[in-house]
Amino acid sequence: ALEQRLKGYRKTAEVESERQQSELMVALQSAKNPQERSQKAFELLGREMAGFRMKQLLVDAEKIREMDLPPLGASRPAELALMYMVTANYHLRRLDQVLGLGEQFLKAYPGSTMYQSVEMLVENVIQEKRDTEAGKAKLEKELDEIAKEKADLEKRPPKMGWPAQRLNHLDLRSCTAAANNNQHEQALKFCEAFIAKHPEDPPDETVELAHLYHLRVLGKLGRFDEAKKEASALAEAHPEFAQKMGIRFQLTAWPKD
């Protein structure tokens, strides 16, 4: 009962947060005092970041960056807005935009207190792109190993579920290997094939694991609506597995809008 009430509280909080953010944007645009406008800009961006509404944060940060707003203390609204544009794109998985906007920030604001935060996001993306490139060869090697083992197993006579069980796990390994090597499109293909092959949902949690890797890859691709739908369905159908794997926490780690 409490869990259901918490869902209701969360929904109410989200609606109230959206209302407050809309009011802040109106106040920002209508304020006559430049310092007040800067203060409202800071407050709006901070609220959107706290609510993890990345799409709205990106829209409003772009608007604020174009406004000619005065500094508030040592901080400049345009500087903060650009930092939030980098951050929003990072969480929305728009990696090329992170690199482009991040470099703009690092060139424009070398003395910023936010310099290291932006630099870290840029470096994270650079490393991820390196890992993705290196992952192509690693996955190819692992898929070759899987194919060789499957070919060997298929020659053996079946005995007490063997080698069918091992073959099943090798099929799942194709899904997980592609995901672990950042080969996202291949991971979706392998995971979807595994799920389709096992509509009966065997008791060894292999199908649940395939769904888990599949929804995580959807998140990596920025396809959050699909990922959230799959995560919610998995948590509903297999609550113990979801608890063990932290699926509800995963849902909170994706943008809210």
Cα radius of gyration in angstroms: 23 Å
Number of strands: 0
Largest sheet data: none
Order of helices and strands: HHHHHHHHHHHH
Portion of residues in beta strands equals: under 5%
* DSSP summary: helix tally: 12
- Shape summary: elongated
The secondary structure category is mainly alpha
Share of helix, binned? over 70%
Task: Point out poorly predicted stretches.
Answer: none
* Average pLDDT metric: 90
Span from first to last CA? 27 Å
Please describe what this structure looks like.
The protein is mostly helical and 257 residues long. The chain is 78% helix and 0% strand. α2 (34-50) packs parallel to α4 and α8 runs antiparallel to α9. The longest helix has 39 residues, at 115-153.
Tag the structure with descriptive keywords.
mainly alpha; 0% strand; 257 residues; 78% helix; single chain
